[in-house]
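Hey, can you fold this?
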Amino acid sequence: MQFCDAQFADALPPLSCSIVFNFVYWPLVAVVAFDRREASTCARLSADIAYLRTRRGVVKILAIGVCNSLNGLLQVYASSTTRVPGALQPILLQSTLLFTVVGSKLFLRKAYSKGQLGAVALVAVGVATALAPFLAELAKGGASTQLQSGPLWPLVLVLGCAPNAAMVLVQESLFDDVPAFSVPFLLGLTSLVQAVVVGLLFWTDLVPSFGTSADASVFGSHLTGGFECFFAPASSANPARCGLCAPLGLVFVFSYAAAYFFGGKVTQHASANLQSLLATLGFFMQIYFWLALPTVNAWAGGKSYSTLEIATTSVALLPIGGGTFLFRWCEPSTARERALHNVAADGAAPEGGRLTNTLLTINEEGRP
């Protein structure tokens, strides 16, 4: 979201990014998913479409898309440093891991072994290590930690983490129903729902003291200006800045797709908890990306990192990575994983065949 916020200035970033993403991504889905020469692809797509014709499938696809849009809206609105201090944001964003672990217990009825709980504790130690400079800054009470817009915005940022956790939990539940559901197809469908929902919620950008537009005309100019910056930088109000908009925008689209594809695969073959743990690891590893590209970091409005922040983050990656590996090592095998193993061994399941039987078997086990 850092790219979206800087890229489209005061326009509604999730809407702009959702539209651009769907514009680029869906042709790729069409080429891959609807290649009639691939019999296995056709068989799996038929099973996916059959699931989407059920009420259960429709509800879960809509839920994933809605949660994705709410996560983007709440976090983008709260991400301004005038609303939530920059030193506080990395700390609050770790709420996603807590929501995911607790949500898995409550809604997916997961049972955690001592090894898994120890792994989560190890990750927590790593997170605390990485956040030590930010915690120290908070303790000093400097200007970068002051709540300029009141105490509610940090709460909004934390609440924005809950839909993110809910999204991956519903994904895991969907994969419990249809273990081999196409991840690219799922990403395309839910991103389309996200774009529609964010578009319907455009009015939130007009809410006083919440959005960024004073009225509808300002919102329209922000939105059209963002697209002009992306597609026609030479004619934009700031050609020098907009020159990087299209190339970095495409990088964002492909990075977004890759991140969600990888996250979906992890959830499909393991669990939402492991996906959240890996996301935590990736969150702290991003510091190396910005260090390698300082010009891009400055263009996007990113902060510079101190030697202490680099050192503590580097040290923290060891317990976070180790805890993530340990959690997966202690994670018990599920009916979904066994079904995926069978599908991989036997080839694509025919429509109404193994996948349908697996769906019925898992539902009989009482999974949500």
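Oh, and this one too while you're at it.
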Amino acid sequence: MKRLLTAVLFLTICTGITSAQQNVLPLPLDSGVTVKGNTLQYALPTTALKMTVTVAHVHEYRGYYADYAQTLLGLSNIITENNSYFSLRDVAVEPVEVPDYEHTYLVQLSSQQNKRNLLGALASCKRTTQKIDYSNNFTSYSEPMPDFFKNYSDLSFTQEEDAFVETKIIDGVVTQIPSNRTKTVSKTNSQKAQEAADAISKSRKDQYSLISGEQETPYSPETMEMMLQELKQWENNYLSLFTGLKLEDELVYTFYVIPDAQKTTPAFAFNSHDGLSLENLSTASNLYYIDIQPLFDNQITRESKAKTTGKISGYRYRKSVPAQVRVLQGSTKFYDCGVINMRQLGDIQILPAKQDRININQLGFVF
């Protein structure tokens, strides 16, 4: 996969910078070719895909009372152990035109262009300078654990009456007197699970009472809705102690890929254990590819770098070709990007030499 490094794109919006060139040579120059006088360089455009991939890092937490979910609530579809995994959620693709550094050209300026100070006009005309960061960007959002679930593991206590017989000597006679005392003990998990199950049952009964109209107070619709939401949240809080809790961290990756015109291009690797990777794709497994299929037959021309010594050559240009673009998981379609105009599918045309009405900035990216 061709990955883009940092580049500065000069998208010149000037018009009228037209005149005949003396010669146009593909770079790098052949050995023995020398160029005299003023020159400029330009690159043909190619189409890169700005990819935004959203991944969820899922964390599953076992409920504190999972062992009692079946006996107290009849629940079997619960989280039985702590676990974490990655899930691929969304892929978005945006086409971006960038310089094709494999097709760059040196323009040898003619005496007429020098007289018109073409280089000065290119340097001084109004232009839009856009610096694109081609490095991989990453953002994340973590879903916080609810305080109810996080803090419910604190020890809770209960009061127990302890009955015993106390022996005392009263008036010289040994007497046994029944007695008791109160002591504070920690609740067992079984006791706490039963209390949580009772809280769920009470919340459901209270919700039913509100909906069925058993209460005598005529609540407003807004008040009813708020009360039902609170009771439902209360129910869900206690229910999570049995079923467990699932939280997700959202990870968003942004990177650029230049698809190959003649074969599928590795874009990224992904698996549920390690998540998304952009490194060492040539040896990675579980690859996702970019596949482009032209909507009509078009012979892709890779211009051969012919010897140009003693020959006058004209400007090169390349039009885009519409193509169906897909993201493949192996050989299976994972995401349909739709129809995108792809520059790398177009033929590279050589214009006749010494054209007088060519706007250099419309051919590509001028450096």
